[in-house]
Amino acid sequence: MKHWILSTLALATLASGLALGDGTAAHAAAPTPVAVATSSLTLEQLFRAESYRGEAAKEARFSSDGRYLAYLWNPFGEPGADLYVHDTQTGKTVRVSSPTLMASVETPENLDRFALKLQQKRDELAERQAKEEAQAAYLRGETVDLDQWERKALEALKVELAQRKARDDARKAAEKAAWGETPAAASAPASGASGAAASAEARKPAKDPKDMELWELRDELKKKQAKDKLKPEDLYPGVSQFVWASKADELVFSYRGQLLRWKAGSDRAQLLLATGRALKPVAYTPDDRALIVQDETRVLRVQLANAGVEVINRELFNPDDEDRKFKIAQTTLSENGRWMALVAEAPLTTADGKPAPKPGRQVEIMSYSERFATAKKVDREVSDDKRGLPAMAIYIRPVPAAGEVPARQPEPVFTHPGGDVWFEISPVVWSRDGANYAFATFEREKSLYRVYLGQPGNKPVVALERRAPIHHELVNVMTPQFTPDGRDLVVLLADKGWRQPYALSLQGTDRTVRPLVSGDFEAYQVLGFTPDAKTMFVVANKDDYAAMNLWRVDLKDGRMTALGQAPQYHRNATVARNGEWLAAVAGDWAHLPELKLIKGQPAAAGAEPGRVLTSSHDPAWAQVNVMQPERVSFKNRQGDSIPAYVFKPQGWQRSDQRAGIVYVYGGPLNDRHLVETDSFQNTGYLFAMYMAAKYGYVTVTVDPRGHSNYGERFADANWQQPGQPQAEDLEDLVAYMKTNLGVDGTRVGLNGWSFGGFQTQYTMYTKPDLFAAGIAGAGPTEWENYNSWYSGRTIGKVDRTKPVLRKYSLLPLARQLKRPLLLVHGMQDPNVLYQDTVNVYRALLESGKEGLVELFLDPDGVHALGGAVKPVGQHRKYEAFWLQHLGAAQR
Hints:
Blueprint: E1 4-5, H1 8-14, E2 36-37, H2 43-46, E3 58-62, E4 68-73, E5 82-87, E6 93-95, H3 108-139, H4 148-178, H5 183-187, H6 193-203, H7 214-228, E7 241-244, E8 250-255, E9 258-263, E10 270-274, E11 280-284, E12 290-294, E13 299-303, E14 309-313, E15 327-333, E16 339-345, E17 361-367, E18 374-380, E19 392-398, E20 414-416, E21 423-425, E22 429-430, E23 437-443, E24 448-454, E25 461-466, E26 481-482, E27 488-493, E28 500-505, E29 513-515, E30 525-529, E31 535-540, E32 549-554, E33 560-562, E34 569-575, E35 581-588, E36 591-599, E37 611-612, H8 621-624, E38 630-635, E39 641-647, E40 658-664, H9 682-695, E41 698-702, H10 712-715, H11 724-740, E42 743-753, H12 755-766, E43 773-777, H13 788-794, E44 821-826, H14 834-846, E45 853-858, H15 871-886
Parallel strand pairs: 40-41, 40-42, 42-43, 43-44, 44-45
Antiparallel strand pairs: 1-2, 3-4, 4-5, 5-6, 7-8, 8-9, 9-10, 11-12, 12-13, 13-14, 15-16, 16-19, 17-18, 19-20, 21-23, 22-23, 23-24, 24-25, 26-27, 27-28, 28-29, 30-31, 31-32, 32-33, 34-35, 35-36, 36-37, 38-39, 39-41
Helix pairs in contact: 1-15, 4-7, 11-12
């Protein structure tokens, strides 16, 4: 294999004076060995300007009879998400929307603008890629013209300015001619000093680009680029949402505020309604003659035969203050079409009825892109802020018949006053016969989880209650579901430490619950049931914590059968009402994720691969996907099994003494973690692959305790001791790497982003001899400054009268640093504030760590950078840092 010597940039870095573990400068006589590359893979190829991965399909849903599957998606390189419908019987797929198909309801000017902006996006990506490759060639010592793009842009700008000047001159000449002005009259002073000045300014010709200096042209170019910068609304958006009919094979979808109707077998969709207001389709009526839609204040019924519109729920009034009108947050229609549930919120107001300021506070973020720095404000609610939760109410009201006089607003069946509390509520769900409705609530301060059950016309009662501390991840997935026969309400609990479905009996008065599955695994997503209510479909990581699969559950005995093919991770899953088909975006490291159609009945020979419906990614990915990782796990000192994956370089042997890199996150992440079979995370996967393939490093990505999807005990290990259990697991990992992965334990680096940036710093400060160097990106070093929705649920108990989370600050620990540390941050990060990195940097300087700490900043970057620093540049810096401080893979 062809050999490449380390880049000029990295060599310069190596020669610039190295830091030893004790912070003293290295002697010139003992330089760190220069790493020799063993692969031709480049960072410019791997992190090219246009990602190899496209957008996966979303919002997949089956028609009422299960024959058709509709989903939103577009092929690689196309903007927006269009509507596609797949026929499970014929195997054919129809594209229902596209810029061409939407020409009947879209203006030609908008379509032209979409096309023009798409070409601009493609040109910008191509130019960015060309610049990156040219810079890499320049650093290798090749002759490269780095000014060619600026020259081209300035020449185009000169032409544009000249054309603008010509238009201005022509316009002014025409105006003078229309007023009959002569040269003498034109030069005569206007009456009044201000008039004279205005007249002179009006007659001042546009500046000629030939008279402009280079710096002036560059300023004009900067203004033009800012003006032409792509915005989300510049590109074709596609379809926003759709609903299937109750019985027929037809649907209605929303495109830029317009509702269109499509029937199976039709060539194209037909415009149903265009009101100028953004209407959200809710559901068809049971007879498919009308469509229920809503906006923020009203619920409407649209007659499909003539597009006649009828208001079936007018504005809602707050029962406590009729001047504070509710806004409808959600409308849920019962299947029989007789009832609707309205979840409404009241606006926050002051005592005099004026809109109240947003709860929390605003913090300033500085921008240095202009001549003088400017500040912008972003909302921030931290743990010691008083909350301002809006009051809410649930209304259950009958759906009026066509032409019926609107009835008086009923009393709400449930209310919550809002205020200075943490309160969460699930959507309202209906039983299929419309006889019952249900919802769940969670009150954080009280550790109170409740499931409510009600009947139309009556207020709900508490059918289930948990008063113990609730698994912090449970509240995000707590929406209950009725079985098709209405005999049970399926709820999500973590009674045994894992998020799993339980059946709450609705028979009689005994509200007992029984587990529907058993075992140590997560199964928090219930997809649906067969019509006879004997089988349930769930997504679970029963056989592999790194991959969620589709499972068929026998509700009689809990027996589970896998339907999807392992080890693929199944996301955005849905099941047909008849249980015959499922669909999910499925993939793994060997197969990029695509939407697949999967049978609801298990095959005799085991799980089948499924029918692939989409092609979302660039085939060129195969050229840079040079390695795949190996899954490993180890036991920590607590006896927990800690999962990880490792890239082993070519020629690896267990007896090697190689340099190694560990990538970590370590924090609660709702339903995600790092070690997932379809995750191609930029640093933990792609860059790890690169360093193993090119330089022979052993690279490990690990999920220590604190991560989600491994059960309550694992995820909650972080509570009130953030960083400590993860640091212990990382220490055990290094010991494992030394014994089993051929790693030199004195040359292992640690890297993480966000919570992983916190974790990297915590470990470097509290176990200062464990890692040889660290890279910490955008870490929340002061938890009292982070968003309270996260910190108060996953870090520790809070007190909204004082910042008690300050006890977990990293600033007092920073003085213990002994090894080189690179701090990375976007200076306009609205999530983890840049000030967190500034403050810890100050603490490091104050404790004499100038020789150990280095800052790498993106002046325009946000939480994932993306300003001046793109992924390729970020990882160029990482490459140079690791080669400087860890050296060659083997010495």
